[in-house]
Amino acid sequence: MIKAKKSLGQNFLIDKDILKKITNTVNIKNKIILEIGPGTGNLTSYLLEKSPKQFFVIEKDNQLAINLRDKFHDQLTVINEDVLKIDETNLFKNKVIVFGNLPYNISTEILSKWIINLKDNFWFECLLLMFQKEVADRIIAKFNTSNYGRLSIISNWKLNIEKICDIKPEAFKPKPKIDSSLLLFYPKKNYVKISDPNNLEKITRIFFNQRRKMLKKPFNQLFNGNQKILDKLKIDLNLRPQNLTLDTYYQLACEYEDLRS
After folding, report:
1. Interval 201-253: pLDDT, tens
2. Both 181 and 201 in a single domain?
3. How high is the pLDDT of residue 5?
4. Considering only CA atoms, which of 121, 64, 126, 61 is closest in space to residue 93?
5. Residue 226 sits in a domain of what CATH number?
6. What pLDDT is recorded for position 177?
7. Distance between CA atoms of 35 and 83, rounded to whole angstroms?
8. Considering the domain boundaries, does residue 1 fall inside one?
9. Closest listed residue to residue 197, CA positions, set 257, 95, 116
10. Structural domain includes residue 35
11. Which residues of the chain have pLDDT under 50?
12. Which of 201, 215, 29 is nearest to 118 (CA)?
């Protein structure tokens, strides 16, 4: 019997209705599939029934990787690596559909890595990913709400995001102590062009470092009180970080790059 490892944030999805729902969310027939953290292969089995063209899984756990090879043989390719150390852009020649019951302890790190490293030619068609509900709520949060922050801004930069459903702890073994949410991400056709995504990461980090404080201090730290930028973007320094729209942060990143060029 396989025991979940707490150190790897493992919670195996066992609810058949949820497994079917995930499998039927997007059409994967004749598509290239990448599954992150397949664990015992419960979702993998359902996905294979949909006749994908190729199937890759990334599984860090050595024993689980061996079990997956034994269970599925030549139906899929098992990559026994840490997903945080893989460059997916060089792994596939064609776009893939990604499924992932992400380890809760590194889910935001995985998502941020993918978004920060995204080129204009996306390496995926879509991402169907599971997060802790509270993390998912931050990802899809709208401005002027308490959940809105760095993760919301970075996640929504190049991607449209749709919430599919919430999932109760009983759907997993072992049961986590919190609810989960399933999110669908797919590329935007139009988005603000930022030369270096790390500049967006820097701006959001500085602005939200003290999210309850007014904008004056972080703005002055980054832009030295530049009045032209305030007028152009119609920013009121008496507001707080959560009061600025997504687009304002993307425009701020562009202004920051212009000043530094």
Report:
1. 999 999 999 888 999 999 999 999 999 999 999 999 999 999 999 999 999 99
2. no
3. 43
4. 121
5. 1.10.8.100
6. 87
7. 11
8. no
9. 116
10. yes
11. 1-2, 4-9
12. 201
Q: Is the dihedral of CA 132, 100, 140, 253 positive or negative?
A: positive
Is residue 135 domain-shared with residue 226, that is, in the same domain? no
Burial grade of 4 (CB within 10 A; 0-12, 13-18, 19 or more): middle
Strand partners, 146: none
Token pair recorded at residue 188? 């935007």
SS (H, E, C) the chain: CCCCCHHHCCCEECCHHHHHHHHHHCCCCCCEEEEECCCCCHHHHHHHCCCCCEEEEECCCHHHHHHHHHHHHHHCEEECCCHHHCCHHHCCCCCEEEEEECCHHHHHHHHHHHHHCCCCCCCEEEEEEEEEHHHHHHHCCCCCCCCCCHHHHHHCCCEEEEEEEEECHHHEECCCCCCEEEEEEEECCCCCCCCCHHHHHHHHHHHHHHCCCCCHHHHHHHHCCCHHHHHHHCCCCCCCHHHCCHHHHHHHHHHHHHHHC
The three-point CA angle 169-98-112 to 5° equals 80
Range of the domain at 245: 197-260
pTM beyond 0.90: the answer is yes
Dihedral, CA of residue 9, residue 117, residue 234 and residue 243, to nearest 10: 0
One domain for residues 176 and 222: no
